[in-house]
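Q: Given only this backbone (462 positions), what sequence would you predict?
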């Protein structure tokens, strides 16, 4: 499909602008961000020891604005920022598996598993069983749009499905509480004694199944009492951890009270599904699921939300908005409508507010503080590296040099104001082209790295 005349005309305007080269540089620095944030303002960096200074003002920038990356983790909103978020998530997860980023390499010897906790059944759906046909009698292809949709929509429990999604965060929280209790019980310890002997750490990510139910993938590890820098007790083992996980998952129950006024005469008892999978994590060359595979899998789903079900990737102000999306799958539409139907009965749950997420209101990626480093620390390290590059380009002294150790000689005065977000149609088309070029360069670099002796290819993206 060709570029529409309006976009093409706007792109020509941008290209012919005297500030086009600087605009390109800004877009490249954002990684080809699809929805950059525009800032107006200035900064003055002063070396208080030498008196050297560097001044920057957006008055000299194209349009008088500085464009910075939006940082949105959703691939449907900004593929470039989502790629960066996935990379950070991969580093965070891998640090908890093999060490690095302040985490000791000894974590590879800890009891650790990759667990998947799923939702229960809310009614039969079209699927691809490992053997035989779907219940409908057909053999569905991988891209069949019927996959995950209800065999009988009139009998499918859409209300139960969205309530389960809505309380999935509470189910996970109770699971982690029960898990520590189950590990302690198997070690012959009380809950109070457990913290003096061991600690359970985890990093997890949420994923939507095609049927619209959220489930969780988690790396769960047993450390010593102070976290990854201390050795776990001798009784800690993968077998004990797996047994505790299964027992904890079976105990979890969240009760949603009945609401006679809206016709819900019975309490809703929400539990985990029976499809609980727990796999030991081995070394990169082991027989168990590998560390690299786990890290890549978790990072892959860190940038996805409910869009895999065909839903919208933004909030829905009113149900009438769905009429403007004729391609919305019927199964997904019914889940969204169920959120709105239940909203008045359970107003504190904000079901309508989260209907674009099919009721889910939790965080897609979470971890315990002791699992590994943080996304903030990774972003801070990247910002410091870029700042050092900038200082080097401007001829300013490196504040981390040996001569400056122990001295804070840099003073930064700045004032910034929000001035908008996004691109014009032509800018968007050009930015997408820049993002594609950057991705091709990254892919080429990764392939070259994979060909080096002793290094495995792959990584965190597909």
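A: Predicted residues:
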């Amino acid at each position: 499909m060709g570029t529409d005349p309006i976009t093409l005309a706007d792109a020509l305007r941008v290209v012919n602008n005297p500030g086009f080269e600087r605009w390109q540089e800004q877009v490249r620095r954002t990684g080809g961000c699809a929805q950059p944030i525009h800032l107006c303002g200035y900064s003055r960096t002063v070396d208080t020891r030498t008196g050297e200074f560097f001044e920057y003002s957006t008055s000299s920038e194209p349009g008088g604005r500085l464009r910075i990356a939006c940082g949105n983790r959703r691939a449907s909103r900004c593929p470039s920022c989502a790629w960066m978020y996935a990379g950070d998530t991969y580093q965070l997860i891998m640090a908890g598996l093999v060490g690095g980023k302040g985490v000791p390499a000894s974590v590879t010897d800890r009891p650790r598993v990759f667990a998947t906790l799923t939702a229960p059944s809310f009614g039969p759906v079209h699927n691809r069983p490992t053997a035989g046909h779907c219940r409908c009698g057909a053999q569905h292809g991988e891209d069949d749009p019927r996959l995950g949709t209800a065999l009988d929509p009139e009998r499918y429990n859409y209300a139960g499905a969205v309530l389960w999604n809505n309380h999935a965060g509470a189910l996970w929280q109770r699971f982690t509480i029960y898990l520590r209790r189950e590990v302690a019980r198997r070690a012959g310890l009380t809950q109070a004694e457990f913290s003096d002997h061991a600690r359970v750490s985890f990093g997890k990510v949420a994923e939507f199944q095609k049927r619209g139910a959220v489930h969780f993938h988690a790396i769960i590890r047993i450390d010593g009492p102070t976290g990854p820098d201390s050795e776990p007790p001798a009784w800690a083992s993968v077998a004990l951890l797996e047994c505790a996980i299964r027992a904890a998952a079976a105990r979890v129950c969240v009760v949603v009270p009945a609401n006679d006024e809206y016709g819900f005469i019975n309490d809703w008892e929400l539990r985990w599904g029976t499809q609980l999978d727990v796999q030991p994590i081995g070394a990169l060359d082991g027989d168990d699921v590998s560390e690299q595979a786990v890290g890549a899998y978790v990072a892959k789903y860190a940038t996805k939300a409910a869009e895999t079900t065909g839903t919208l990737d933004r909030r829905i102000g009113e149900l009438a908005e769905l009429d403007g999306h004729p391609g919305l799958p019927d199964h997904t539409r019914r889940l969204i409508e169920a959120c709105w139907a239940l909203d008045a009965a359970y107003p504190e749950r904000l079901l309508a507010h989260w209907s674009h997420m099919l009721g889910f209101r939790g965080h897609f990626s979470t971890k315990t503080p002791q699992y590994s480093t943080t996304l903030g620390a990774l972003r801070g390290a990247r910002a410091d590296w870029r700042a050092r590059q900038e200082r080097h380009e401007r001829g300013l002294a490196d504040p981390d040099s040996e001569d400056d150790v122990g001295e804070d000689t840099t003073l930064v005065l700045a004032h910034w104001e929000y001035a908008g977000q996004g691109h014009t149609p032509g800018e968007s088309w050009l930015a997408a082209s820049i993002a594609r070029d950057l991705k091709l360069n990254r892919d080429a670099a990764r392939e070259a790295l994979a060909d080096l002796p002793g290094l495995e290819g792959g990584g965190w993206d597909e």
